[in-house]
Amino acid sequence: MLPFILRRVAQAVLVMLTVALLAFVLFRYIGDPVTIMLGQDATEQDRIQLRHSLGLDQSAPVQFARFVGNAVQGDFGLSLRQGQKVSELLRERLPATVELSLAAALLALVVGLPLGVYTALRRKGAASQTILALSLLGVSLPTFLIGILLILVFSVMLGWLPSYGRGDVVRIGWWSTGLLTASGWQHLILPAITLSLFQLTLVLRLVRSEMLEVLRTDYIKFARARGLRKRSIHFGHALKNTLVPVITITGLQLGGIIAFAIVTETVFQWPGMGLLFIQAVQFADVPVMAAYLCLIALVFVCINLIVDLLYFVVDPRLRAGLGRAGGH
Fold this sequence. Notes:
Elements: H1 2-29, H2 33-38, H3 44-53, H4 60-72, H5 86-121, H6 126-140, H7 143-157, E1 170-172, E2 175-177, H8 182-215, H9 218-225, H10 230-259, H11 262-267, H12 273-282, H13 286-314, H14 316-327
Antiparallel strand pairs: 1-2
């Protein structure tokens, strides 16, 4: 298993270097940071001095090597708009995005997995058909429209839940969380539902289709012929073999939730990294954009690596195949 892990880590490093190159090109060739930081009225001497202090007068390979070295240390320079370190801005916004993304992913799994199993086992029932029909809304409606509709119903018309912000937070060191306050939970509900609907629908339909496919296999028919109980067949055999593709999609979707929380954070003015990225795009704050790109790529790479390793826990056939390959 060690060669497999080392091979995956090497691939991850290659991917991160490619993303770093794209971020470096974005940082170097889109806009002029000297003009943005000093303005149009700066003297030529001031421009030359700032360009030297930023290292922009060096060759491109030297600048890229320094960019990668700084990025490994979490240093992406200063925000052109706010004048703060980009790493500090991301650290301030990271807890909000992680909290929202994990809540949405957990909601999608807790609701989508049981509903997928239910609609597979009761596929001809009226309740299953109704659930499948309603699940189309999660696929067809865009995220921003879902968020606006939830705000209209639960905030404007009913007045049950707040429509923007994160609520009261508690600081534990540098980490901030709203999960320890009633206000934080109230503010989390609508954004989490909005962000989770597409993933919930995806999990539901994937589990249903995989479950139906597994239930048609010969070993399930053999288990029925042996007289095993339905609960043992459905949950001990069928569901276990359904989890491999579910783990794949869920892992990739978690990265997608974090990356594409931008729309949800904008609609609900949730103070996370997505909202910070939107503000950076509006003001051409290239260092923040480059840092966000590298961070999201790192999230996807780590999640892919974790998903690959989880295969060996869930599917014993992979472990057996790896053992035979190692034996040869």
